[in-house]
Design goal:
This protein is α/β, with parallel strands linked by helices and 400 residues long. The protein is 34% helix and 23% strand. The chain folds into two domains: 174 residues, Flavin prenyltransferase-like (Rossmann fold, 3-Layer(aba) Sandwich); 194 residues, CoaB-like (Rossmann fold, 3-Layer(aba) Sandwich). The model has no long low-confidence stretch (mean pLDDT 93).
Length: 400
Amino acid sequence: MKLTGKTVVLGITGGIAAYKACELASRLRKAGAETYVIMTKNACEFVAPLSFETLTNHPVVTDTFARPETWEVEHVALAKKADIFVIAPATANIMAKMACGIADDMLSTTVLATKAPVLVAPAMNTGMWDNIATKANVETLKKRGVHFVGPDGGYLACGDSGAGRMSEPEAIFDAICGILCPCQDMAGLNVLVTAGPTRESLDPVRYITNHSSGKMGYAIAQAAKRRGAHVTLLSGPVQLTAPEGVEVVDVLSTQDLYDRMMERCESQHIIIQAAAPADFTPVTFAEEKIKKDGDGIMTIALKETKDVAKAVGERKQMGQVLVGFAAETEKVTEHAKAKLKKKNLDMIVANDVTRPGAGFNVDTNIVTFITEEGMEDMPRLSKADVAEMLLDRALKLYRK
Ligand code: PMT
């Protein structure tokens, strides 16, 4: 069984999706995992602890001050026992507590004490999910390495439609397996990823750039590393933490990206170019800050930068797989297909950057994978999920 020998601590908070956690607990047990459930007081209003006791064959913990019966219930014992700590469903409240380090019940206390990886499956009303406070808490938790699965979009129990549905138990189970038994299908491969914007300087204080946050490229680098690849990340200036174990090379301008790429591209098995390098750069760089001249109009002469992906395509090695992205605002597939050809790519990932939830500086993307053979449209997915799907396809092309 897939999870034999593993211990899962499953935290359940108060939401209608708590009933779906029964199926998750059942799957975990069938897969061989020892599963211990901690429920908040509110969770017990939705599902009776007895259901989980029956499904897991262990007492359910609901009270910090409960007296141990047949096994140790204090928070440290469960925190230590866990190979993974899963909270599903996770309310906005538990995420806020986790982000702030608040420990005022058994669940928040135990998750604060654990050193195990933590996976959160949020479930809440769309308004709560979209709230700036929730967004900030999610960002904080992600920066600390907390894993997320979902939430999905769709019809919510409160009658609203939008993001906020807890992911299906199957998806949460897959995410647990992905963390506990990461597949190493990219072991031995050199993977180079580009991410983020470039900056093209006008003078010592000004530059031209774009809205790329680097999130897409960093998600790919992180996923490739987790799958066992040796990963080099050529990164433009971004506000993200470097993924553990990835060799990060900082670049500033498109010329910089070109230079660093040319030093490395021939030794890579797979190259994935998610960066948004500036297509134009000022013809001249003013050594001193440019002053206003009083006529109300400023004209800057620009020239085209080097096309890095095209240069890599011209140097393509035998068996190498090249993947590019296409950031489009109209005629998305038409333009993307032209770039696939022009840059000698094996696959291009088209994203319409005008669609909500896609493209620049968001945690999700809506992409179409395009190869010579055909196209696959994807729904809105987290960038982490897009990264995994992209790598599945790149690997398939590599092994062809
Ligand atoms: O960083 P995020 O905020 O997460 O946003 C993600 C993203 C929108 C930046 C990403 O999903 C994306 O679409 N990246 C490609 C952006 C882009 O420059 O697209 P393009 O269509 O202009 O370029 C096509 C390909 O050529 C890209 O792989 C690009 O890296 C590459 N290129 C472009 C210009 C240039 N001078 N040299 C290049 O190599």
